[in-house]
Amino acid sequence: MNVVTSRLVDEDAVLVSVDTTKGSAPREAGAWMAVFADGVVGTIGGGHLEFQAIDEARRHLAGASDDLVRTYPLGPSLGQCCGGVVDLRFERIGADDIPALEERLAPHLSPLALFGGGHVGKALANVLSALPFAVSWIDSRDEIFPEQVPANVVCEHSDPVHGAVAGLAPGSRILIMSFSHAEDLDVVAACLRRLRESDDLPYIGLIGSKTKWATFRHRLQDRGFSDAELARITCPIGLPGITGKEPEVIAVSVAAQILQFAPPDKP
Description:
The chain is α/β, with parallel strands linked by helices. It has helices at about 5-10, 45-60, 100-105, 120-130, 180-200, 210-220, 225-230, 245-260; strands at about 15-20, 30-35, 40, 70-75, 85-95, 110-115, 135-140, 155, 175, 205, 235.
């Protein structure tokens, strides 16, 4: 059970969801929050829109049982200047709705494979855990993983490490940062071979400098990969202009690039 459905075992709530939007709006259609008598889970964008929606939901919780859709212009009367219009749906939910809500409210996670359990890998696993990715965290050293990892991160020991590439979910984003340049090279080559076969890896990122990539290019060309194939590899990784070398800074920069370059699929 998630936070919402676990609370519904003992108390009802009102599910507030963005039904439709026109113009600028703080959240997209489908965004939701669950309003309980003494708490809120989720968000529809914050600000006065959310405050008014919470008040309406609690009135709904105290009385009406029918679904309700209300229109909110995001103008001066609401204390917001987005300029758009949002239709919010209010639905009373309880214990009987738990099975349907488990599926409906489950986050849509895109697959991502993170090769390497070093300092940057650990920082990235933490950052990615808050983003809409299902992370396969892969290393040839089984003892490298921490005892506790986030719910959307699964650790996998693979020796040789590049052997895991063939079994990755279609559409996986790839981040390569093992403890060994030789391992990195083998993982990149395995990804390129998979691109030849199925072309189903939208982003392949390799940590390292321009000098590292120049060396890798020559070695991969010697293995028979073309310039067009090598152009599918992103190296260095991270957003230009962010120059910090701390693992946490690198992790934020790389995560932002993945969201920008290859945003997660929407249902």
